[in-house]
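Changelog note: in this version the structure field was regenerated for every chain. One regenerated record is shown below for reference.
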Amino acid sequence: GTIGTGAPLHSLSLSNIDEFLWTDSNQPSTPHGDGPSSAVRERTMKEVDDSRMIVRVVSSHSAKVHLDSARPMLAAAQFLAVEDVSGAISVLSNNCEHDMAYALAQCFQKDTAPHIIDMADRVASFGSIDLAVEMLVTLTNGEEEVGLMISRYCNATTTEELIAKYNLRPLSAWMHRANEEEQIGSDAESVTSYVIAQSYNRAVKVGIEVLRRLIREPLELSAGTKKLVRALKFVKAEELEEPLRMQFLLIMLWFSAHEAAGLGLWDTACCMLNLLHLSCSLVTTFPLSETDIQFQLMNFKVCAGKKKDAVAMIEKMMRTQSLQPSSDNTIPLALRQLSDLLVTHSPVENTFLVSLAFKNRNIVSPMRMAEGGVWGDHTPAIMKIIQKLSVTMSLPNIGSLATKRRTAFDESEAGLDWNERNASSVLQGSLLPTSNMHLKLYTSAISNTRIQGRVVVLSERGSYASINEAISWRRVNPFSPVLDGKIINL
């Protein structure tokens, strides 16, 4: 492909785009001969900004192609080519290339602690517990991270051996600290300490009480509550008492779905809420009604750009609303308005943005297009209705997250956005052929779609997911969608 005067796309980068656009032939002088006029300079700088945007979009598109073929290294290289180090690190980290993400972060003096934690978790999942401990003790809060990792992967015997070998704080000390923190109302610290002390039932009971109070505010959690939620992800859920285990897993699904939405993992968020909607009847004391979950699932599908599914859900809910006597017609009216908008408009795909940016370069700004939202220029009107429904139903408002999705072409979020969309939307897993492709086709337990690439075994009973689905799911929720309490091993 070419751009502008015919220069090949592969020859452009952010470092030479200015030189490409700002040539002597493009700089008409003022009547006094003192260089280009301010109007010309302003117009040219706008072209520079738009061209920079085009280069970023093309690089992101190339990265997606590499991710589709399970080549995260090459995908990361696309972002490095446009000087987007954060995007490259995100691609590597989110595709289980934690060692390379750490190396890149170290070279460019970025924060390496998250990548050390990820590497330690990865090697611990392979049974190299000693190596994981040696990695984590280098961190500022290393002892706490070691305790959480041991809680997830070690039994009682191995735990005692590691405590003695590395002179770690005994479990009894963590239990004592947990009791003290609970007495003074420090929920995050008490739950974390209970998990490290491997008192899972107590940790979950305290954690659930906190999360039940915040069930309608999953997008507005304090730093302390986020720490509490993270600690709960290290619980050995299969060891919980049966009624408590299901309640715990379903509440984690609700909060994890909104965490996924906050990261742009809309397909994963929809799958989580769909599973919650199907399973909430298993818990009689779940703090949300089936209608609440159904409405939020519909909101998620709209924000994900799933037009067919969203319209079908809206029509079903309108039929249900018509059977319920009510003097307030706010919800039926909003549903009708939303349905009309979705039926008459279509979501904007990233590939559409790329092609249109080249075809109409002199007509529309690619930056403006990228900021439009999943439904393009109609996004504000659609999200206004979503906000009205959320307020009426006392549900979390996710409208701003859907708009954020299109702003992820900037330097700090480009890699994150493209990797997340790939990981959540490519249901086939890697497009590279594998032996089981020719032997047997599997159905994903996450999305209920056929998997034709690499699979991840979720349970011995025959539950599977594509590798991309599993990676995306585990980023926000380590527990298997089979709801048996076991963690997903990639």
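Spot check on this record: The beta strands are 2-3, 7-8, 442-443, 450-451, 455-459, 463-466. The two ends are 38 Å apart (CA to CA).
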